[in-house]
Amino acid sequence: MNSPDIQIRPVTPSDVPAIAALAREIWQTAYLDIITQAQIDFMLGQRYGHEQLRADLENPDKWLDQCFAGERRVGFAGSEIYRGEFKLDKLYIHPDVQRRGVGGQLIAHVAARAQKLGYPGVILAVNKHNEKAIAAYRKHGFTVREAIVSDIGDGFVMDDYIMEKKL
Fold this sequence. Notes:
Structural class: alpha+beta
Order of helices and strands: EHHHEEEHEHEE
Oligomer: single chain
Number of strands: 7
Number of helices: 5
């Protein structure tokens, strides 16, 4: 695997516009064949609006990390304490650096945080039809725990697997 030299740094308030723009760019590639453009736009607004990202940064139970290859921002991860478990809530890598170890480095970074805080594992939710992401998560030790369907508003649902990785 050809892994670029990656630096992982916390997201700061001044990074919020760049993270929101990167999310929009990645989602257009990752989800257009899985969910509708209307749902993509709804979820981006719900989860990646500047106000929401800034609120996430202020929450002591949430972390946003970004990764750089050189000076280029190539991905980010969000993690949180969620219902008593440690959750990898966001993991997005720019398509032109996928399959080069960047996501694995972010997963390891989040898992190390979970372990340091005393959690026995990490959970995540992934769309049941996102076969590339499911395969990547399996490669990094995640297994499917359950299937769920969640109403997220405006007539949209998330049809996901909950996956977990024991630490």
